[in-house]
Each structure stands twice: as structure tokens, then as C-alpha cells.
Write a structure and sequence with these properties.
Keywords: Copper, Metal-binding, Oxidoreductase, Repeat. The chain has 273 residues and is mainly beta. It is built from five helices and 19 strands. The structure holds copper (II) ion.
């Protein structure tokens, strides 16, 4: 059960009780040993990691109710990837909440690593009418939302909702270069990721250091697409992080980055877009 909008509850299907699921961080070259313990008495579930080369029919196979399955695969491609339940109908499993982000840290890092002062994670997902296959397939999302996940001790793990990251913003200090690992888990919509009041100085599409772009205003994230984006915040204030598909922003896809002289939340009112 999670509050996806003020006073509204969604009985999400989850990995470990979160939607999106827990952030996974591994190093390029690691071998993943993944065990799925299916605690759902009613239906199979599975795991599809976009970060690996594997045999979908074997390595992403369904795990039956009350059973466990263990799978092994190498993570040899650096980047920011989606994971999701791949059990049919996949649309229902993703739309009900079985999605998340896996970061495979590049062996040689990013060329801008030394410039970065603060790092955050943001995930975009959609919510539809509860477990309504017709709405998933033919409707439009009721909400389009952001969540953040903890990269280090003290960071938060939030679910995808319309309000948490507005009421309790991300915080940075004037002059910081901020890095955000972003991922659009969909299931259906493209995201146009934009930060009001800055330019995305460095962007790595899908988080691969080889896909280095400079000076973007907006990054397009296809359904399942990710990126690492970096920008410098030069002046204090509330910066709205949005999907610049403004129907999505209107439905919830806004987070606030509060920039202060101290780098601490000063408690002042945020007034973003
Ligand atoms: Cu599932």
C-alpha cells in the first residue's frame, strides 16, 4: 500500500515493499547472483535486468508462487538501467509497481567525477487506475511521479508519488555541481527531463561514459531509458525538476531542488513550477 497522491492509496505490486523497487548498485565486471523469493501466493513473478546479457527464457524465467529462483549473470556494461518484472502480461506487472533502477558503476568512472559535489537518484513512473488492464493499455496515466532512492547513508528511499519531493526537496549548495542518476520506468510514457534554471552541462545517455553530451536543455528518456545528468547551480533558490511534457508535470512529475548558501535546508518555502 502506498500513497501515490495526497490521500490516495495504491495497492502496488512491489519488490521488497517499494515502488519503484530498491536501488541496486554494482560495479562494471561484477557477477550478479540474484535470488527472487516470490511471496505472492497468487501468481508468478520474475526479474528482467536491462543491465545484463542473458537468456531471457532461462535467466529471466518466472518464479512460481511461494518459490525461490536464483539467477547469475555478468554486469559488463556500465550505466543506469531499468529492471522490472517480466511476467506476462508485462504491462500489468510494471504498471502495478514492479520496476526499479540498477546502476552499474563504470570501471574507469566518468570523466567529470572529480567535479561532482552531490549525487541524487530520480525515477519517473506512471500510475493508472488500480490493476485496470484496459486503462493500462488504452488510457492515460492518472499520475506521473518521481521518487528518489538512497545512494548513501542518510539519503531517503521514497515511493513514486506526487508530493514528497515537493514538500521535502533535494538540497544542494550554491556552486555545487549536482549529478542525478535518472531513469524512466514507464511503463508507457516518454519523459522529457529538464531542470528549471540551469543547463545540463554534462549528460551521459543511459549512464554510459561513452555517450557523453554537453549543454543539453532537456534529455529525452524513452520508456526504460536512463541517463546521468550533471549541472551547476549558481544561485540560491528553488529549482523545479520536471518532465517538460507539461501534462506529466501537471500530473505530478515535479521535484524541487532547493539550493542554499549553506547546503542545508533552510526551511524556507519552496515555490517551484
Ligand atoms: Cu510480477
Amino acid at each position: 500500500m502506498l500513497n501515490y497522491s495526497k490521500g490516495k492509496i495504491y495497492k502496488a505490486w512491489t519488490f521488497n515493499g517499494q515502488a519503484p523497487g530498491p536501488l541496486i548498485v554494482v560495479n562494471e565486471g561484477d557477477t550478479l547472483h540474484f535470488t527472487l523469493k516470490n511471496m505472492d501466493p497468487a501468481m508468478p513473478h520474475s526479474m528482467d535486468f536491462h543491465a545484463v546479457h542473458a537468456s531471457p527464457s532461462k535467466d529471466f524465467a518466472d518464479v512460481m508462487p511461494n518459490k525461490s529462483g536464483t539467477f547469475t549473470y555478468p554486469a559488463n556494461n556500465p550505466g543506469v538501467f531499468m529492471y522490472h518484472c517480466g511476467t506476462k502480461p508485462v504491462l500489468a506487472h510494471i504498471a502495478n509497481g514492479m520496476h526499479g533502477m540498477i546502476i552499474v558503476k563504470p570501471k574507469s568512472g566518468y570523466p567529470t567525477d572529480k567535479e561532482v559535489d552531490r549525487e541524487f537518484v530520480l525515477i519517473q513512473n506512471e500510475w493508472y487506475k488500480y490493476n485496470d488492464m484496459d486503462d493500462f493499455q488504452n488510457g492515460v496515466p492518472s499520475y506521473v511521479v518521481f521518487s528518489t532512492k538512497a545512494l548513501k547513508a542518510g539519503d531517503r528511499n521514497t515511493n513514486g508519488d506526487t508530493f514528497t519531493l515537493k514538500e521535502k526537496p533535494l538540497v544542494a549548495k550554491v556552486g555545487d555541481k549536482v549529478r542525478i542518476y535518472i531513469e524512466n520506468v514507464g511503463p508507457n510514457e516518454v519523459s522529457s527531463f529538464h531542470v528549471v534554471g540551469t543547463v545540463l552541462d554534462d549528460v551521459y545517455i543511459d549512464g554510459n561514459p561513452n555517450n557523453h553530451l554537453k549543454g543539453l536543455q532537456t534529455v529525452m528518456l524513452p520508456a526504460s531509458g536512463g541517463a546521468v545528468v550533471e549541472f551547476t547551480v549558481t544561485r540560491p533558490g528553488s529549482y523545479s525538476i520536471v518532465s517538460h511534457q507539461f501534462n506529466q508535470a501537471q500530473k505530478g512529475a515535479v521535484a524541487i531542488l532547493k539550493v542554499t548558501e549553506t547546503g542545508e535546508d533552510d526551511g524556507a518555502e519552496t515555490n517551484g513550477h
